[in-house]
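Before the break, one more example. Copy the sequence into your notebook; we will annotate it together after we see the structure.
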Amino acid sequence: MASESGRFGTRIRSLWHRNPVAKVPESSHLPNTAAIAMDLCRDPQRVHPMAYSVEGISLVVFKPTWIFQAHRPHSKILRNRLFIFKLHLLSLLPKKSKTRAAGDMEGVALLRSLSCSTTVCRRLLFSPRSSSRLFSSNLRRPRRPQQFRPLPCASSPLWRNRPAPPLRLGRGFPITSIRAISTSPVERESDRRNDVAEKLGFEIISEQTIDECKSTAVLYRHRKTGAEIMSVSNDDENKVFGIVFRTPPNDSTGIPHILEHSVLCGSKKYPLKEPFVELLKGSLHTFLNAFTYPDRTCYPVASTNTKDFYNLVDVYLDAVLFPKCIEDFQTFQQEGWHYELNNPEEDISYKGVVFNEMKGVYSQPDNILGRVTQQALFPENTYGVDSGGDPKVIPKLTFEEFKDFHRKYYHPSNARIWFYGDDDPNERLRIISEYLDQFESSSAPNESKILPQKLFKEPLRIVEKYPAGDGGDLKKKHMVCLNWLLSEKPLDLEIELALGFLDYLLLGTPASPLRKILLESGLGEAIVGGGIEDELLQPQFSIGLKGVSQDDIHKVEELIIETLKNLAEEGFTSEAVEASMNTIEFSLRENNTGSFPRGLSLMLRSIGKWIYDLDPFEPLRYEKPLQSLKARIAEQGSKAVFSPLIEKFILNNPHCVTVEMQPDPDKASRDEADEKEILKKVKESMTEEDLAELARATQELRLKQETPDPPEALRSVPCLSLHDIPKKPIHIPTDIGEINGVKVLQHDLFTNDVLYSEIVFDLSYLKKELLQLVPLFCQSLLEMGTKDMDFVQLNQLIGRKTGGISVYPFTSSVRGSADPCTHLIVRGKAMAARVEDLFNLINCVLQDVQFTDQLRFKQFVSQSKARMESQLRGSGHGIAARRMDAKLNVAGWISEQMGGVSYFEFIQNLEKRVDEDWEGISSSLDEIRRTLLSREGCLINVTADGKNLTNSMKYLDKFICLLPNTQPLKTGSWQSLISPGNEAIVIPTQVNYVGKAGNIYETGYQLHGSAYVISKYIGNTWLWDRVRVSGGAYGGFCDFDTHSGVFSYLSYRDPNLLKTIDVYDGTANFLRDLELDNDTLSKAIIGTIGDVDSYQLPDAKGYTSLLRYLLGVTDEERQIRREEILSTSLTHFKEFADAIETVKNKGVAVAVASPEDVAAANEERSGFFHVKKAL
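Here is what the structure looks like once it is written out:
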């Protein structure tokens, strides 16, 4: 999945857990990452959009996590959730989240603020698992890997920040023997390390103590092959391994991406179809995926269990070095592309997982913009092609080229290998040596070198069309983005860091001047371009607007240049610089990577330089350059530091490419027609014998895909036993008390002197007609001013005093109750010394902000509309999930009103009303505040060290005393649902998102822990095999919301429609016919426990406990469910089949699809879908 995911695109095969937890509307207000994260994380299993605050990013959710996929780096624009977490040093500086959906930077503001990185619990009952999400909450967001690999899971968890590649800060090092490494000698622990290394064939290049991450790092070189191994040792139980190959493509056939998918489809030692899926089923991994960048391919795993960790390492090493795919043409066909013909009378079609994934990528305007930009900036090197694959070019790839690429680049001599954690460093070398010793040295390192792009002498302009719907005024749907390549050579570390600060100052928050001026200009709806991206060899800077009128294109360009000139001349305010500095310092101290393993974020940082033969230690050491930069700013002033950077790298830089994107309502249908014409000619060129052979080959491939692996092959994959699994669930310390009538939950956990808090208000008091304004109300609280401060001053004050504040709605069903759990949550964090400031600022945001700025509110509406349009195109499965939920339960209806198609329709109408009835809208915002802000129904959650918890209570007492002590009136029931029935939401796209759902509690089914095991098993087997492998969709998964009883199926980037629904309808029979041996059943149970016991940082634990409290999930129930999981039997599978039969018979289907596919479906099954046109 190269492009967007890794296996997930780049196969970031995320592991979706199941246990849905809450649905949350898209938080338009949620700035940046926070919203996202929350969303994603929340419910691993849930596919629907949810929204817990997670990872510090404002995520808005769409659960199918892998949805969450991060999108290929090519698109720097922030891709829809998927974020990849780039913690590079620079990354440490929080910055606008590139993955912001739709490229809009609205969330950026809080990125820093909400870097609360809590991976919030995907499932309340279980903790969230960080299986394949990437993200980044740092200032320098790197470009996402081109692709991640979506996982099959029963549910898909999302997570917070996207993993982004690390920032390469780097200056080149003179080459001596291998490379000169910056020396910061550390005391050798003993000669034993050298002795072991020597005996195993390794030599130590450098050994250093890395104080920034409390680690000892040793760089080894394997004498025989030249492979380099970084071994980082510390006390982190979440162990990480990764192997990275430099894989520069020469064309856009997508070889790196297809290979990244394919090597995980069986190997010499593990000769089954999908060892990767077997690991998903039965390991305790905390991360398991792979991803493709424009110039490298990464294969990381993580686990807290040492035995499990080494099992994962062994499977991955065998997969990349000895894959079956280079001898198996059918794997190439399945993962890459092939002609499909069921019988000679039908039309030929293209199929292939990567092919369909990339058709989806090429249907999204933001992705198209990112691809065009990258290729225009780098016309002469490997970045000028698409490593993910262009759907028009992928069918040109041959099996021989595919095999040759693996032979050429997947060699130890071309590898960088990473270990991190608390396991035995010597055991790492023993494991690695068993594989490396089978190879000789290779010329791959020379052949894979990345050559720099030479700088242009003149600017360039590119005009490209993108597929647009025919609704609305197309003249106002243009996009324009200015892009600069900043340097031909690696930059000095301090310059890299300064550029990261500059990027944050320009675009990092809603108050950042470049971002603010562009949005306030009224020339466009939302920001595009990701600012500075530096995860590749050469950094670039991009900025622009979407939703621009054709006549205003040049005005946008002029405004960008003029604003940058003014900033270079006048500099930034001291308040802005101080706020940025505090944000960076806070991020460094917190070191919060959410559900993303810390060791993996460090690996991505280090690889950002290491992959280019630069010093791999340098990105891990940020303290000295950071202090040096601070000293320069203090001595010379910020203007002397940043203005020369603006002038040199942007204003006076001729290597500038302006990309203009023009809407074309006929492009999608034209592309589809072109593909059909090509396939028509292919068929016409074939003889009857050729067609018969193709039909036979199609059937053979399908037979292979649907034939189970033999038991002996399955047993080859190492697995833990049930005896290795703890019988008790993970306990989160929680004390429940009361202050001035308000319930307070306290969690005494080590947080490195940071305090995290959530203030929860009851949304159920709100009038039904005000519900859809809640997301905009949340954004207004954070991005409007008070009587004494404008929003810029308020935003900077939050940045100077805290680690961030975010506000968002939370909604979930409650098992056993007809009434939903629906709340407004305010999240904040600060160093313990600034807790008083944190609560004072939360009070200011809640009570002092004035809803009087009509212009800014109008911007919020435009940004929300642009974001929803992007979600419809790129996260259609999330839209479909919300829509189905809205037809089946009240919590789903509430969530859909605040983040689904209904919300999109509301926003479109509201945009027209802002000028006509601003007074009424402003009054409604005030009414929402008056209704919600009350001690009645308020709940406060605090997570910190014991001493800091105690000290914070006096400030919390003061905060509570300032809350109105009113008694809000209940406004009646929200018992509303969207009319039932199958529905197709039509958009211009080349792929579909297909869902079906039903409420299994209505059949009388009583929740049993086995449901978690069964749901995960369905996703990892039946749906993975039939929807993804055989059907060609990028992903297929199911989700069981144990709170509402809704069991749902979803597909992602799916070439099919009715065929996928037929697969869903066959699930009950699949379970009835299922035969499971003890090993397979144990593996399914162990994998489920892995989801339940997901690794969490302290803030995530505190937030998870809060959600459990809100939803009534007790420790006693969790123990019961765990025991039920551990005792799951085949009988439970058979019984569950009867329950989910109701989805087939009484469920509702919702698809976000192309008009052509919907018309064909309704022709095949008359009136199957009610059609709603969205774009």
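Residues 1009 and 1121 are 4 Å apart (CA to CA). The chain is about 40% helix and 15% strand. Try to locate both features in your own notes.
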